[in-house]
Design a protein that fits this description.
The chain has about 425 residues and is of the alpha+beta class. Among the domains are: about 130-160; about 160-340, Alpha-Beta Plaits; about 350-360 and about 385-420, no CATH class. About 60% of the residues lie in helices and about 5% in strands. It contains eleven helices and eight strands. A four-stranded antiparallel β-sheet has the order 4-5-3-8. A hairpin with a 2-residue loop joins β6 and β7. α5 crosses α6 (about 230-250). It starts with a helix and ends with a helix. Bound molecules: zinc ion (ZN) (2 copies). One of its GO terms (cellular component) is U2AF complex. Pfam families: RRM_1.
């Protein structure tokens, strides 16, 4: 029991002390509150405190007013900025609209121009197509006319009766006019006139032989080609001659056929063929143009030089051409058996004979009177020359009559001599 009473007292003391401390704390707090209240009351009653309070109230009021003023100013400022921004935005919108309008105008203009250009191009294209069609039609018609002409003959088609000029309004090239070839080819500054169709065709550089490539003359001053012509070139040429003439004769009767042995590139190996008719020449042209011979493609042209006499160099046969291989006139091979030859010398001879016959004043007569000399003032020397001519003429006549017997009946020369006899 004892210990229990003891413990009860200890707890009781502990609780009593606790309550005592509480009471002390409460009394201290009460005193402090009373003191504070008292001080506060005293302070409230003090005029300085009242003045301070008023001052404080005024300060707070000022602060509030100042804040309001600043806020209003800021609002005003913001409004101004906003107005300005809106004004700028509107101006920008106007500018943008203008730019859009301008761009639209530009686009419309470009589109219009493009459309016009397209239209023009289309028109041009249509025009070209139309022209091409017309050209094609014309070509077809011309081809038909040519075919008709080749098959059934008749008049030469009108469209072929034209001349092609390299330099119209320029002076005519005398070499081309005479030989249908010019050392400057079509780059010549003068005018080369080609016929649309003719009875003579020329195939440039058709015949080739290495001897024609040599341009130098030998040490004795004579032309190399002459040496070669006599020996091996001539045999080579003869083969070419028979081969080509046989083929070309299929398209019509050939009157003259000549092959150039000039060394100059514009005349070297040029083959000239004169047909009896334009129709035959045209047939031959159609067949041989673009055809191949010995690995070489042929380019056939029509030509219409003034005369064979002016084209061929007459001094070449007698080996007296002063220009030799550089001559710009035709140096032609002598055709075998003079077939299809333009006999320059023969015609010259005929002319001389005729002149001599006219001038002859000595004849057989019944009286001793002599026919008066038509050329009274001719000298003794010229008379003796005529006598020499007549003697040599008779000699030539005799030799010709011998050779005529051996000639072929196809020879142009023999035909003409028969006509003469
Ligand atoms: Zn020329
Ligand atoms: Zn010559």
């Amino acid at each position: 029991m004892f210990p229990n009473n003891l413990y009860r007292h200890y707890d009781w003391r502990k609780i009593a002390k606790k309550f005592r401390r509480k009471r002390i704390r409460q009394s201290i707090a009460k005193k402090r509150d009373e003191l504070l209240e008292k001080e506060q009351n005293e302070q409230n009653k003090s005029p300085t405190y009242q003045a301070w309070l008023e001052e404080e109230a005024k300060r707070k009021q000022f602060e509030i007013e100042e804040e309001n003023r600043i806020r209003r100013e800021q609002e005003d400022n913001w409004c101004r900025i906003e107005v300005e921004a809106q004004r700028q935005w509107r101006a920008l919108q106007v500018k943008l609209a203008e730019a859009r309008e301008e761009r639209a105008k530009q686009n419309a203009k470009i589109k219009l121009e493009w459309e016009q250009e397209q239209k023009k191009l289309q028109e041009l294209k249509e025009q070209k197509e139309k022209e091409l069609l017309e050209k094609k039609k014309l070509q077809e018609q011309q081809t038909k006319e040519i075919d008709d002409f080749l098959i059934s003959g008749g008049e030469t088609p009108e469209h072929l009766k034209v001349t092609l000029e390299t330099n119209p309004n320029k002076p005519i090239c005398p070499f081309f006019q005479k030989t249908s070839a010019c050392r400057f080819f079509d780059a010549c500054s003068r005018n080369h006139i080609r016929p649309g169709v003719s009875h003579i065709i020329v195939i440039p550089n058709f015949y080739t032989h290495y001897s024609l490539e040599k341009t130098s003359e030998n040490e004795h001053g004579s032309d190399n080609s002459l040496e070669f012509e006599k020996h091996e070139t001539y045999n080579h040429f003869k083969e070419f001659f028979y081969d080509v003439v046989y083929e070309m004769e299929k398209y019509g009767r050939i009157l003259i056929f000549h092959v150039c042995c000039n060394h100059e590139s514009h005349l070297r190996g040029n083959v000239f063929v004169e047909y009896e008719t334009t129709r035959s020449a045209l047939k031959s042209f159609k067949t041989f143009n673009g055809r191949w011979y010995g690995g070489k493609q042929l380019n056939v042209e029509f030509c219409a030089f003034e005369s064979w006499k002016k084209a061929i160099c007459g001094l070449h046969f007698s080996n007296r051409c002063p220009k030799g291989s550089a001559c710009n006139f035709l140096h032609v091979f002598r055709n075998p058996k003079n077939l299809y030859s333009y006999d320059f010398f023969k015609r010259e001879q005929e002319k001389t004979d005729n002149e001599l016959n006219k001038k002859k004043y000595w004849r057989w007569s019944e009286s001793p009177e002599r026919i008066t000399d038509p050329n009274k003032h001719s000298s003794k020397r010229s008379r003796s020359r005529k006598i020499r001519h007549s003697r040599s003429r008779s000699r030539r006549k005799r030799s010709r009559s011998r050779s005529t017997k051996s000639r072929s009946s196809r020879s142009y020369r023999s035909n003409s001599s028969k006509r003469r006899s």
